Structure formats: C-alpha cells, structure tokens
Amino acid sequence: MNYQFASLTQKRTYDTVLETLKQSRQNFESIVADTNDNSKRILSNELIQDFASGIYNKLTDYDKIYWNVNNWLDDLPGTQKYYKSISLYTGQEPFFQKGVQVPEIDPAVRERVMSLQGRALWITAPGEIEYYRGIMDLNMYGRMIGIVRFNLDEENLYRIFSNLQYNAGAQIFLLDSKGLVLSSTERNLVGSKLDYVANIQEIFNTKEGYLEKTIDDDKKVAFYYTIEEPDWKLVQIIPEKSFSTLRRTINLILLIAILLCLFFGVLFSFVQHKYLLKPLQLLRKEMMKLKSGNFNIALTVDSKDEIGDISNGFLRMVHQLKEMINDVYVGRIKQREAEIKALEAQINPHFLYNTLDSIHWLALKQKNYDVSEQIEALAELFKHVLNKGEPFVTIRQEVDFLENYMLIQKRKYGQRVKLRIHVDPVLMNYKMPKLVLQPLVENAIVHGLEQVIDGGVIEVSVTRAEQGIRFIVIDNGLGTDEAKIHQMMNQEGEKKNVFALKNIDDRIKISYGPEYGLHFTSKHGVGTRVEVYIPLIE
Asked: Which residues form the HAMP domain (predicted)?
C-alpha cells in the first residue's frame, strides 16, 4: 500500500512539474503567432510593396519612405522586445534594416525562402534564431519581390522560463529539432549542441511528457513539451534524487498522518459522545415526554453549537405551545362568559322591545305621531341589539341602526349635532360585528360635542382598506388626552373608564385576530378620530 501510494504520489508530482513547465507555452506561442502576423502585415503593406518593388524616386523619396517604414514597424506588436533586428531584402544585401547589424542573407537560405512562395521558414544556428518569409508582389501573382527577416532576441526567450519554479540542480533547455541549445538556464551552453541529446532522443518523437534516464552516471528525469510551428522543445532536467527526498518526506508524513488519525479518532469518539450523542439522547428523552403530553421539560442547554440551537429551538417551541394552549383555553372561557352575559342581557331588551312596540301602537291610536316616531326608532334600536342572538350584522343594518339612534338624539340636541355618513355602496352587504359605530358616535356626542355651545359635526365613513374594511368616526369637539386614553385601555383597573372603546377593540380582536382592532387619536381643542379595521367578509 505504501509503495502504491508512493508511486501515485510520484506520478502526481511529475505531472505537477510538467504542468508548471507548460505555463511558459503560451508565451512562446504568442511570440511565434505575433511573428507570423507581423510578417504578413509587412508583406501586405502598400508602402513596403512599393519600397521592395523600387516604385519610388530613389534620389528624393528614399529617406522619407525609409523613415515611414521604420515608424510603421515601431507600431507592430513585439517589435521592441522580441527581435534584435528586422531586415528587408530584395537581393542578398538588405535595403532596410531596423535594430542590430546582421550579415547578408545566405544564398542557399534565400533560394529556399523564395521557393516557399510566401510561406514562413524558421532557421536556427549557433547564436542565431531567425524567421524568414518571402514578400510576394500583390499586383502580380507568383512574383517574389523580396524577403523579410526577423532575428529573435535569445534574452527575451530566456526570460520566459528563467523565473519558473524548479528544484535544486534542475536545468532548462530550449532545443531545436536537432538538439541545438537555443536558450538555457545554463548560459554557457547556449548556441552549442547538448552533449547527452542522444540519451533523451525519445523526446523528439512525442509532443510532451517525462522520462527517467541515466545521464552522466546520475539518474535524472526529463520533462518536456513541444512548441509546434518551429518544432522546438522546452526541456527541464531534474536529478531523480530530488524526488527521492520527496518520497522519504512523504513516507514520514504518511506515518505521522496515520498516528494523528488514530489519536484524533479516539479524541473525536470522546468528544462525539460528550457533545453530540449525549445531548441528542437527552433531547430525545424530553421529546418523548412532550409526545406523551407532559409539558414539564427539564433540559439544560450549555452548548452554542447546532445541537444547542436545536435544543433551544425545542424549548422555545414547548414554551410557545404552552402559551398557545393557554391562549386558546382562556379565549374559549372568555367567549363562553361573553355568550352567557349576552344571553342574560337579551332578557331585558327583549321585554323592553315588546313593551315599546305596545306603546308605539298606543301612541298611533292616540294620534301622537312624534311620540310614536321616537318610540319606533327606540324599538328598532332594541331590535338591532337583539338581532336574534347573532353577533354579526350587515354594514347596511349597522348604518340604519346608527340613523335611528341619531333620530332620537336630535330630539335632545336639535341642530347642534350634525351627522354625516359616507359608505361605499359596494360594502353595504358585508358582515361586521354589531354595535361598533353607535358607541363611537355616542362617545363623540357625550365626550366631544355636548359641552360645546355651538355643537359640531360627526363624520362617519366606511371604505375599503388594504387590511379589509376601515370605519372612521371623526368629530370636531373638545378632544382629549390621547396618551391617557391609551394608558387606560391597557390598565386593568382603568378599563371601566373607556368601556366602549375597549369593548369594541376586544370583540374585534377575539373575532378576527390581533392584527385588526381599534386605533384612537385625539388632540385638545381639535377633535377626535377613531379608526376600526376588520377583514372583508361577505
């Protein structure tokens, strides 16, 4: 197992070294691609076409065209850093040269370039890396009018791989297809043929990889990849003992890792039992108690991890469940008490309603129509209060009840109290709790307008709202201390002083939930505004 692990680790290490070496590939390919592109731009440039063809006045225009070509070449990618020189030829001697001085073109090379009909040619020699391409006459197919020659800067190639991370004793070589060292970290070997190239001849048969060889009686590993178009190889030679040291280190790390795994395995088992299994067992025990209906949960939570969060969540759930059960239980008791009180309260109104009905007919018989009208309105009030024991009425019925109430009050206050009612007709048949508007209007009269000599106006509106239906009762009376009213509504001993407001608010919250109810605002000398919200129920 250790051997297999070591072999696998060694393979992965070799792969990593190769990938690191290949990080330089893009830079080499960029130089090759830019050189190809630059040569194509040169041979297609109209100025250079004329220059190579000799279509200019050599006495007057030569210097101008020469510097125009020179300036244009400055704008080509890489001309400042890739190349030692760029030369243009029509014969063996250059007619244009930029950069260091280069010798005349070799006749054999010139003949070979011309025969390629515009295709590129890479030539390598000791100390020289050259690129050639024939310049074709764009106005006459097949006619060659010159050659462009690039001399690449070896220092620039060296900088590409000189900063690669490699092991101690490692060497990097850029080789051509014949084993000539074009560039290297071993600077004294640049321009010479690699002595042991025969030992690593296999690298020239494949594109990339690594192989183990004995070189100068020392085991070494050669890593390499191919730069396609010039058919160059970048080779890194690393002593095998560098990896042997790594293997020994890996074996030691593996042994330490196994011992640490055993130690932490035992430690984790202990921690798991104390901080995971035991708290979960206690939590499960308390959950079983809750399942059986026992809400007396005894669970102490000390941890702040996920188990602690779950335990705290369980305790909150139990607490909320108990509160919910108590709320439902207490709510049902209150509802039952209200029903009993309502039944008790119906006895007297029912008797009074029958009596008032008898008096109404008696008044009609005596032709006392004013008394009859008042008694009929009062009877309608009692009839609305009874409503056959139903707690809900339509908005139309509630508004009729309010108008009957005001018919009676006008006998007392005359024109001092004016009531204006605005109801959205669409809402008339929607349901609402009975006795909501009349107590609010009565409060407005008694506490807001009664002591005002000139009286005032009460406005009642029923409209749609985002929550459902909104009832608004506004008066321009004396106003009151808004904060004191809110305080009395929330204090048990003071609720009798705001009975009407508290009664309406409680009935609505019990019927529809805490998000509905009564909102009270008031200001001394300005008036009072009461808003009531209920859901939309047909």
From this structure: 274-326
Contacts 24+ apart (CB under 8 A), 105-112: 105/147, 105/149, 110/147
- Report helix, strand or coil for 367: coil
Taking Cα atoms as reference points, which of 164, 205, 169 lies closest to residue 183? 164
516 against 338, higher pLDDT: 516
Q: In what order do the strands lie in the sheet with 83-89?
A: 94-99, 83-89, 144-152, 128-136, 120-125
Exposure string of 273-289, with b = 16+ CB inside 10 Å and e = fewer, is eeeeeebeebbeebeee
Instruction: Kindly give, in sequence order, each residue whose CB lies less than 8 Å from that of residue 63, ignoring residues fewer than 6 positions away.
Output: none
The confidence band for 328, taking pLDDT boundaries of 50, 70 and 90, is: confident
Torsion angle (degrees, nearest 10) of CA 257, 259, 263, 264 = 10
Q: Are 238 and 218 in contact (CB under 8 A)?
A: no
Q: Are 440 and 503 in contact (CB under 8 A)?
A: no
pLDDT tens for each residue of 111-135:
999 999 889 999 998 888 999 999 8
Partner residues linked to 211 by β-bridges:
222
